[in-house]
Amino acid sequence: MLRLSRRLQQERPRQAVSLNQLSLLGHLSRYGPTTVGDLATLERAQPQSLTRPLAALEADGLIQRAPDPNDGRRVLVSITDGGRGVLSVEMRQRDAWLALVLSRMSPTERGVLALAAELMEKISQDAESHALRATHHRSAS
User: What CATH class has 2-104?
Assistant: First the structure.
């Protein structure tokens, strides 16, 4: 997995958006408006460590912050159309490279890989859900 991750990073064109920022955009696209604390939980990081990447994304117009309509003390971060565009370009480029690699595999190999991908996605979703539930449980206590 680590080698595949590195290879995907190598295939990325030089962009202004870091992998950390790309990950944050992905979370915001997937989950919608989110608090910095929840983003930190998803990233397995401290909220303070997201200050710079979020500030850069906001300065570039890729995210926006707004008061939480249910709790004015909290701020929600959301992805903008510009952020969705950057994420979309990144995903298309990644998908094009993966399609080329997959085209060189046999149907059996592609089937095994598809099943493995489904299982890894399930594990990832379970882990993210567990982390978010734990965060919400701690904040409710």
Answer: mainly alpha
